[in-house]
Design a protein that fits this description.
mainly alpha; single chain; 6 helices
Length: 168
């Protein structure tokens, strides 16, 4: 059966998708947009990949390059998770009025404790450090023997991480 143009395009897109994912994790590989066309951008990404992983720089995907692309791509999903530094610094304080990603993380940890312990208050995860969040943080601080100010400082953060089981 002959190799059709559609099949060729699908294979090129597959290579491009893998390279795209690898490039997001490795800044030495240029990001290529999967479009099914093996143009100069794809060739440059393949050459950068080959250079990065000590393969012969040809700009073409031979079986050695293909196997290495698959190995690296699969490694992205089977390696240990990257640590996520959510709390900005030891002197930072998250308090009533704050909003955003860090507040979501704090509320998610508190929510998890509310699901695990019957005597722990339930919290609405909304990304806004509101009065409810302040009260539940103060309750958590009381439970842990910390100063009950309803603000998440480094000590409260570390205790939250420890108590929610998100530490190594």
């Amino acid at each position: 059966m002959p190799y059709s143009n559609n099949q060729k395009r699908q294979h090129i897109m597959e290579v491009q998708r893998y390279l795209h994912a690898i490039a997001l994790m490795n800044g030495k590989i240029p990001v290529v947009i999967p479009n099914g066309v093996y143009g100069n951008e794809t060739r440059m990404a393949v050459m950068a990949f080959q250079r990065e992983y000590n393969l012969k720089e040809t700009g073409t995907v031979d079986s050695v390059t293909w196997n290495k692309i698959i190995e690296i791509y699969k490694g992205l999903f089977h390696s240990a998770p990257e640590p996520y530094p959510a709390f900005p610094s030891g002197k930072f304080v998250c308090e009533e009025g704050a909003c955003g990603q860090l507040v979501y993380v704090i509320q998610a940890m508190l929510y998890g404790m509310g699901q695990s312990y019957d005597n722990f208050p339930k919290i609405n995860v909304c990304g806004h450090f509101n009065v409810e969040t302040k009260d539940i943080v103060a309750n958590f601080q009381k439970f842990c023997g910390l100063p009950q100010n309803g603000m998440v400082d480094c000590a409260t953060w570390n205790m939250l991480v420890s108590c929610s089981g998100h530490h190594k």
